Amino acid sequence: MSQSLPAILEEWKCMDEQYQNIQDTYKIYVQKLDEISKLQSSCSASISNQRRRLKEITQSIKRCSNDLTAEEAKSIEEMNGKIKTRPNLFLEMESFLPKKNGIYLNLVLGSVNVTLLSKQAKFAYKDEYEKFKLCLTVILLVFSFICYFFINFRFVDAILNFLLVWYYCTLTIRESVLITNGSRIKGWWVFHHYISTFLSGVMLTWPDGHLYKVFRNQFIAYSLYQSFVQCLQCYYQSGCLYRLRALGERHNMDLTMEGFQSWMWRGLTFLLPFLFFGHFWQLFNSLSLFGMAKLPDCKEWQVLACGLCFLILFTGNFFTTVAVVRHKIKSKNETKAKNQ
Ligand code: COA
Fold it and tell me: Fewer Cβ close by (within 10 Å): the C or N end of the chain?
């Protein structure tokens, strides 16, 4: 429908006013961005300065901790208590400040800033990571199922292994971003994904000989089982994430934390038998491969390399999981004692 000229002029006037408003808002936005970037630099500089001074003051306290009066000892003790909590508080602050990427992220992404500046954005990224993991795990589960029961063809196995390499590579990048944003993922789980990438890469290059055929079904069955366990693990970890989000503030709401912990323990006690079974399957794979490596007709280096990878995976997974569970039991007891 065509408009008359006065109506067009009126609309243009209105649009022009709106444009002025946009310009003003944009100017304020740029100004605030500039202020934020200055505040970020000043906060980061002050934190590094405080860290250095904390170190110095701790050493000075050590040096003059002999021959103290009761009052001096008390104030030193108070000071020590505060000094101990400061590094964690600084770490929490730093998770909201831009920082330089580590070597890995620098190599993969360059020096782009990956710090997410709000709690919601961090939760959303983690949530998306869990969904990505679940989605890929289901695809891997279906793929391994098909390879185990229906298709025994080296080319299709190669696609499965390639998918595994790509999946684990992507996880290492996403986890590095999560760590930069204050996630407490233990270094071992990231290392675990590097080893798994290497292992799947080696499986990809293993030629289709007699030994490959012997180990193939065991490996595919293991992949199938691992995908199944990872689905359970994703369900558990998304559950933890949603409950933590519902708590609002993390780490410092002990009352509601108890409710969270009771859910977490129910999830963990269900999950742990499956996890440990998976770890012993890794050990079994490694022993089978070491047995194969001793055979006189074993010429492929992949046998020993995969055996070693499985052994490292078993050792790291088993001991880290035991350490995680022990730590959780300890903090559960501490929370109980606090609330009594
Ligand atoms: N991969 C990636 N991230 C992991 C992880 C894993 N295996 N285990 C823990 N995390 C993350 C958590 O999501 C959490 O992140 P956040 O700080 O961003 O919230 C952080 O590390 C700390 O988690 P934590 O409280 O120590 O453990 P949890 O309760 O989340 O999970 C286990 C505990 C035991 C279930 C988990 O570590 C696990 O599944 N381990 C076994 C993995 C394994 O062996 N896989 C092979 C199966 S055959």
Answer: N
Instruction: Quote the ligand 1 centre to 105 CA distance (angstroms).
Output: 21
CA 206–ligand 1 middle distance (angstroms): 31
Reduce the DSSP state of residue 113 to 3 states and report it. Answer: coil
- With a 6 Å cutoff on the Cβ, whether 126 touches ligand 1 is yes
What would the pLDDT profile of 208-245 be if each residue is shown by its tens digit? 999 999 999 999 999 999 999 999 999 999 888 888 88
Nearest CA to ligand 1 atom 36: 321
Q: Is 252 helix (H, G, I), strand (E, B) or coil?
A: coil
> What is the SS3 assignment for 17?
helix
Which atom of ligand 1 lies closest to the CA of 327? 26
pTM of the model: 0.85
Closest by CA to 310, choosing from 232, 230, 222, is 222
Cα(7)–Cα(281) distance, integer angstroms: 77
Residue of 279, 280, 307 lying closest to 295 (CA atoms): 307
Q: What is the distance in A from the centroid of ligand 1 to the CA of 194?
A: 16
Tens-place pLDDT, residues 58-86:
998 888 877 778 888 888 889 999 999 99
